[in-house]
Design goal:
single chain; 102 residues; mainly alpha; 0% strand
Amino acid sequence: MGLGAKVSNMSQQLQEGFRITVTGLLGWSLKLFSAFMIGLTFALIGQEAFAYGNMAFLLVLVVSAGLIVRWISAWTILNVVVFDLICVLVGLSLKMYIMLAP
């Protein structure tokens, strides 16, 4: 095995490792963003319903986001995107119900 073949092999391994790392970081950042948005929604609902302070708001935000991250940690990126789209659809239907309700 010559020097050129070793350099080519090392370059291919580097590219594969980079691709896996970027895919993993993208997946985790999407999962964290999704969990943060849902946790923020739960915390805002609780703050409006029960009128609690900032510390309780942060507690609800962190706990709910942590539970959601734990729940969706084994999912693929496609599963998380579908979950996000379903959450947006439910949110829009609730908004429409609130606006149209007498």
